[in-house]
Amino acid sequence: MRGYQKFAVVMVCIFAVFYTGCAKQERKQEGPSEVIKPETVYESEMIASMAAGKDKDIYIGLYNETRDIVHLMEDGKSETLGSVFPDDKTGNHRITSLYLDGDKTLYIAADIGYGSEVYAEVYRLDVTSKKMSKVKTYEQYHDINRIAMLKGELVMLAKSAKAAEKEPVLRDAFDIFQYQGEVIISQDGDVVFDEFPIMFAVMGEKEMLLYAHADNKGYCYAKAEYDGKKIELGEPDYQNLGQLTAMTMTGNDTFVYAATSFDKSGLQEFNYKEYTIAELQDSWGVITEPGDLINADGVIYYRVEGGVKKFVYEQVKKQNQTLQVIESEQISFLNAPYGCGYQMKIDRLSDDEMSLKMLSQDSDYDICFMQSDDPFGYQVKEKGSFYPLTDIKEVTEYLDACFPYIREAATDGNGEIWMLPVAVSADYLLYDEEMLRKYGIDKEKLSTLGSFIDTLKALPEETRECIDATSGCMERTYLPGFAEKDGFNNQEFKKAAALLKGIQEDGVFAYHQRAGDAVNMHKQDDFICGITMAQENTNEAFLSNPYVKAAMLPAVTDKDTFRVKCSFICVNAASDNLDAALEYVKSLCSYLMERESTMMLKDKEGYLDTELVKTLYDLYEKGTVTFGMPEELYYDAWEEYKKGSIDLDKMIEEAERRLKIYREEG
Amino acid sequence: MLCMLPSILGTLIFFVVPYFRMVYYSLLDNQFRRNFVGLRNYIRVVKNQYFLLASKNSILLILLGVPVLVIAAIILSLFIRFYLEESRWKWIRYAFILPMFLPTAAVSLIWRELFSGASTALPVYTLYWWKNMGISIILLVSAFSSVNPEILQSAKIDGAGNIKRHIFITLPMNMPIIIFVTLLGIVNSFRIFKESYLFYGNHYPPDYSYTLQYYINNNFYKLNYQVLSSSAIITSLYVALLVFAFLKWQKRFQY
C-alpha cells in the first residue's frame, strides 16, 4: 500500500472510532404528568358480577342473601332492583355473570347447587318491568362467567366437568396456564369452541377477540367469528399475557385486561398491533374475576376489595411514544408497578443479552428494569450505566419520602441518583399468634434458626400441614446473606449449614399445600407460621386477622439485619427517547407517592391500619437493601455438600475461593 | 486491489475499527462517563493477581500443550503419510478429523464423566489436544505429501534409515508449515474456553484452569469494559509478539 493510502485508512479508522463512540447528548426536561386516581362508585363486599349499558348504566349482581341486582346510574346514584331469586332461601342460586343486551334486557347466569351436583341456569330480566324468565338450564355446565350476544343469540364461556379432563401442554417455565374445563357454548348448550379458551371480548355483531391456550403452543389471541354453529378462529398471535381473567375492548386494536402473569398483575392495556402494554392500574386491591371489568363508553369499571371503582380511560392512558423496556429473565416481581398509563414494549433478556446491550450502549431501549438480588443490578451502579436522576425534582422528593436506607441504595458513591426504586420485598417470618398459643409454641423460640427448627420438629404430625418453611426456601433465604456479607468461613455459617443440611429429608420442612394456599391464595386455613416473601399487601385474609404478624427471620448471627430486595428502574443514558423516558420517571414518582402500604414510604398515614402491616412497617423501617451475588459462587459447592460428596470444610474452601475471585478479579 | 476491497472493508469494519475503539475505551475510566485516565486501566490489570494467574495458566497451556500437540501431530502425520496410506487401514486417518465435527457440548459431557475426579488441568489439556489434532494432521499430511519422493529415495539408497530421512529431509523441508501449525496451536489455545467452560460448568473454574478468557468473560458480565479491553489488548500484544517472532523464524526456512 502506498503512503497516502495508508494515511487514508488510518484516518478512516480514527473517524469511525470517534464518530460512532463519542457523541454526548444534551437533553431538555419537561414537566410532570398528573396522577389520575380512580373513583369509588359503589361499596359492597358482595359483588358477584357487573354489566354495562349503552348509557353508562351499570348493573351489579350481588351474592348477598337476597341476590340483589343494583342499578348504578351515571350520576352516581344507585337503586336496588330487587332480589333475583326471591324464592331461594338456601343460597343455592349464586349469580356468576351478568350481560346487558341493549338497555333493558339483563341476562343473568347463575350456578345452582354445590360440588359435583352444580349446574348452570340463565335468566332474562326486564329491568323496567322487573319481570324475570328462565332462558335455559344447562345441566352439563357450570360457572358461566362470560355472556355475550353474537348473531342474535347468547354465547357463553362456561366450565364443563367433562372438558376439564383434557390436559393442556405447557410451553415453558413462564407458562402458568391452568385449565378448569372452560368451553364456549351457544344458547342451545352446544359447544362452539373447546380449544382451551380463557376469555373473550366482543368486537362486533358476530366477531370477538378470543384469548386462549391453543394448539399447545401457549397463550395466544385471535379474532374469531361466530357463524351460528361454531367459532372460527383467525390467525393466532402467540403472546403470553398470563392467566387472563377479564378483558374488555377499548379500541380496534386494544383491549384492557386483568391477568396474573409471571411478572405482572393489575389492569393493563395491550395493543396487539404495536405489541405494547400500558399499565393502567396496579394490582393493589384489584379483583380479577371475569365479570368485574367493563368498558362503558370510555369509562372503565372494575372491582376492588369492597366495591367498584372507575376511571376515564383516556385520562389514564398516556399517548406517549412507546417506551422500550428491557428486563431480566430472572424477574419474578409480581406486584412491581411501573406503568402508570405509559405504553411500553417489554423485552425479557438473558444476562448475556443485557450485558451486551449496555456495554454497546444500545440506544434502542429506554428503561432497564431490574431487581437488587440480581447481581447485574449492582454492576449497573458501579459502572455508571445509567442516566443520573439527581436533578429531577420529583425523584428527589420521592426518595426523601422513602426510608433513608432506600435513598442511600439509590445513590452512588458520587452522590448521583442512579436508579428509581419502585417496589420492595423481603423474606420474613409470618406467624399467627393465636395458632402459636393454640399449639403451645413460645414465640421467642422462633427467633433463632436452631430453636426455630427444633420447635417445629417437636410439633405433632397433624400440624405439619400448617407450616410453610420448606428446606429449599430456607436455603435460598439464608445462603445469599453469607455471600453478601461475611462470607462462609466463620462459625455462624458452619452452624447454619449443619442445621440446613439436617432438615433436607425432614417432612416438617417439605412443601405443604395447605399452608402454601393459606399464604398465596388469599385463604387462611390453620396457618401457624412460615418463612415467606408473600405479597402481603394483597392477602386480605391475613390483613384482616389481628393475630397475624410479621417478624425478623430466625437469626443465625447477632448481627442479622432485615434484608430487603428492591426492584428498580434505570434510565438508559444513550436512549433515543430520553425525554419521554424522563417524563415517565416523573409521572412514576408522583404515582408511587400515592400508592398505599408500599413499605417504602416513611409516612405512616399511607398504610393500612392492620397488625400485619404495622409489624411489617416496623421491619421495613430498619431494613437494608441488599445487592445480590451470583448463586454459582456458592450454590454448586452447597449442593455437593448436601449430597455428601464433599465435607463442610471443602465446601467453604470452594465457596470462599470463588467469592475471592469474584471480588478481586476486576 | 479492487478485488480485495470487500475483504479489506470487512476486515476494517469488523476487526480494525472495533480494535481501535477498544483501545480508546481502555484509556477511559468508564464508557458511559468517558473521562480520560491514560494507562491507569492497564496498570490496574497488570497488577491484578487474577490477571497474572490467568496469564500464567494461558502461557502454561502454550508452553506445555502446544509442543505436545505439534510433536504428536508430526509423528501421526508421518505415520499416516508414509505408512498408513499404503496399507489397507488407511481409512483410520478419517478418525482424526472426527473431533472437528462433534458437538462441543456433547464432548464436554463425556469428558466430565471421564475426568470427574481430576484435580489438575489435564482434562482441559486433553480436550485441547483432542480437538486440535485433526486440523494439524490435515495440514502436515498435505505438506509431507509435497516432499519430492526422489529425494527420499536417493537418501534411502545412500543408506539413510526411516527416522534419519524424516529428521533430515521431511521435517526441515516442511518447517514453514510446522511453524504455521505451531502458530495455529497457539491461537487455538485461546479458543479452548468454550470446552473448558462447559466442562467446569461455571465462570469460576479451579485456579489451575483459570485462563485469560475466564478473566475477560467475567469482567464482561460485570460491565467492566475497561478491564476487559485492557486485558484483551495486553493479550493481543503478546500474541502479536509471538506471531512476529515465529514469522521471523519461519523466514530462515524458506527455500
Q: Looking at the structure, what is the overall shape of chain A?
A: globular
Number of helices of chain A: 16
How many domains would you count in the coordinates of chain A?
6
Strand content of chain A: 25-35%
Question: Would you tell me the overall average pLDDT of chain B?
Answer: 88
Number of strands of chain A: 34
State the end-to-end distance of chain B: 28 Å
CATH homologous superfamily (4th level) name of the largest domain in chain B? MetI-like
Task: Estimate the global geometry of chain B from the Cα principal axes.
Answer: globular
- Helix and strand content put the structural class of chain A at alpha+beta
Low-confidence stretches of chain B: none
The major pleated sheet of chain A works out as: 10 strands, mixed
How would you portray this structure in words?
The complex is a heterodimer of chains A (666) and B (255). Chain A has 666 residues and is of the alpha+beta class. Chain A has six domains: 46-139, Thrombin, subunit H (Beta Barrel), CATH 2.40.10; 154-224, no CATH class; 241-314; 323-396 and 564-625, Periplasmic binding protein-like II (D-Maltodextrin-Binding Protein, domain 2); 428-563, Periplasmic binding protein-like II (D-Maltodextrin-Binding Protein, domain 2, 3-Layer(aba) Sandwich), CATH 3.40.190; 636-664, no CATH class. Chain A contains 16 helices and 34 strands. The longest helix of chain A is centred in the N-terminal third of the chain and has 19 residues, at 3-21. Chain B is built from eleven helices and no strands. In chain B, helix 3 (49-82) packs across helix 10 (212-221) and helix 10 (212-221) packs antiparallel against helix 11. The two termini of chain B are 28 Å apart. Helix content of chain B is 70%, strand content 0%. Chain B has two domains: 1-38, no CATH class; 48-251, MetI-like fold (Orthogonal Bundle). By secondary structure, chain B is an all-alpha fold. The mean pLDDT of chain B is 88. Classes of the chains: A alpha+beta (666), B mainly alpha (255). The interface between A and B is medium-sized, with 36 and 33 residues.
